[in-house]
Specification:
about 260 residues; alpha/beta; Rossmann fold; two-stranded antiparallel ribbon; 12 strands; about 25% strand; binds S-adenosylmethionine
């Protein structure tokens, strides 16, 4: 028998078993503190796109702050993230015990998943959750009108494959939000060089970072979206709070050309 497409809503876990990636205000719980507080500027984070009445696939939902926001905007939302037996792409530094690291990441993801379901119950949400890897999103989840990639591509070994996997299910709009990870002068040098290639982050000398692979310049993401059929693109920069401090990010919105 084929596995069900959506995960049945899970009973809310105890708050102590949850980890929150996002700061969120949850009815009945108040404010739960997370690493990122997207609340003050979430519309910019999502590229100022109109979501009302649209079917939206949110890739890498984590604690679900973006999914629940989209639902409040009137979207029908599918929140997508890894299943319990899967793991993020960890950088395989020689000397690291990958089995131990993978087990730790899975435990951490389970606590984030618990937080998602706690928030889902607290909001009385109708967001549907599907699990799997973004590299092979089930065809049956589509078609959707919009897909969002919020701070996901930098954590993937093959970000273009992930975009292509989502693009095939996306009728109209693809939204990519990424961190501007390099210093301003480094980004200027990249621009002057005119190459706009991805910048490789992991360094064997420091053994860091362990969970991020790339700085992806907005020009590169734009070219990728163009290749995948999102011919009209806009880029906007914005600031979001990480552990209370402002961080620079950018969002590329790609629209498919209207059918002739
Ligand atoms: C940095 S969080 C971004 C959370 C949220 N999208 C946002 O914009 O704030 C990255 C999320 O991507 C998920 N993720 C990482 N690799 C993935 C993969 N291969 N397939 C699906 N989700 C993945 C992680 O589990 C995590 O929830």
């Amino acid at each position: 028998m084929a596995a069900p497409l959506f995960v049945p809503p899970q009973p809310a876990a105890d708050l102590a078993e949850c980890y929150f990636y996002h700061t969120m205000e949850l009815p009945g719980h108040g404010i739960v503190e997370g690493e990122w507080d997207l609340r003050p500027n979430i519309d910019a984070y999502l590229g100022g796109v109109e979501f009302s009445g649209r079917r939206v696939l949110e890739i890498g939902t984590a604690s679900g702050c973006v999914a629940f926001h989209l639902e409040r905007q009137g979207a029908e939302v599918i929140a997508f993230d890894l299943a319990a037996d899967q793991c993020t792409d960890v950088v395989p530094f020689r000397g690291d015990d990958l089995e131990v690291r993978t087990a730790r990441v899975r435990q951490h993801l389970q606590r984030i998943r618990n937080g998602f379901w706690l928030a889902h119950a607290a909001h009385g949400s109708k967001v549907k959750r599907a699990e799997g890897t973004v590299y092979a999103i089930p065809e049956a989840l589509g078609p959707v009108d919009v897909t969002t990639f919020g701070s996901v591509l930098l954590h993937l070994r093959d970000p273009f494959l992930a975009l292509a996997s989502a693009a095939r299910l996306t009728r109209q709009t693809l939204v990519v939000t990424e961190l501007l990870q390099l210093r301003t002068w480094q980004r200027w040098l990249l621009r002057l060089s005119g190459t706009h290639g991805p910048v490789w982050l992991p360094d064997a000398r420091t053994g860091e970072p362990k969970h991020s692979w790339w700085y992806l310049p907005p020009e590169l993401v734009t070219r990728w979206l163009n290749i995948l059929g999102f011919a009209r693109t806009t880029v906007a920069h914005h600031t979001q709070l990480f552990l209370g401090k402002p961080n620079q990010l950018y969002t590329v919105v790609g629209e498919r050309a209207p059918a002739k």
